[in-house]
Amino acid sequence: MHHIRTRVIRGAAAAAILTLTAGIAPAHAEGYFTSSLSNFGDGGESRRWTDKNTDGTSTSVSLWSCSGSPHMTTGFRLEVWKDVFGPDEGKGSKQNTCNTNYWGRLASGNYYFETQLPDGFSVSASGVRVDY
Question: Reduced to 3 states, what is the DSSP secondary structure of residue 5?
């Protein structure tokens, strides 16, 4: 009888430990893609991505190896948009100087980012990574 109780207690303890560890596992991005920008002017749009909001990861856009005008010390703006029926929903505009910007955890939906530059200006980036 003592052996049976010990096995039951061990089994319950193991189940509790598994439940606790599963609850504190590190969050991983639901998805990401890599790409590049070539002479994006004002209103240049990225490809769309679908965020199912199955994790707690912040949506981020990273650019590297940038060129164009304005100079990257001045930078330009990126805005993330939610693609919806009717006018798309802006999720915020961030200053970018060939770096990473974060938009926080976004609700389920289809998204894209847009470059915002003065008329006649353009930007290129050999590396783009979007995490969502």
Answer: helix
Place of tokens 């002017």: 41
d(CA 43, CA 33): 20
Which DSSP string corresponds to 19-39? HHHHHTPPP--S-EEEEEEEE
Q: Render each residue's pLDDT in the chain as its tens digit; 132 residues.
A: 544 444 444 444 444 433 333 333 334 669 999 999 999 999 999 999 999 999 989 999 999 999 987 666 788 999 999 999 999 999 999 999 999 999 999 999 999 999 999 888 999 999 999 999
- Sheet containing 76-83: order of strands: 49-51, 109-116, 76-83, 89-96
Alpha helices for the chain (secondary structure H): 2-23
Coil, strand or helix at 116: strand
Write out the two tokens for 73. Answer: 């010390």
Return the structure tokens found at 78: 């990126």
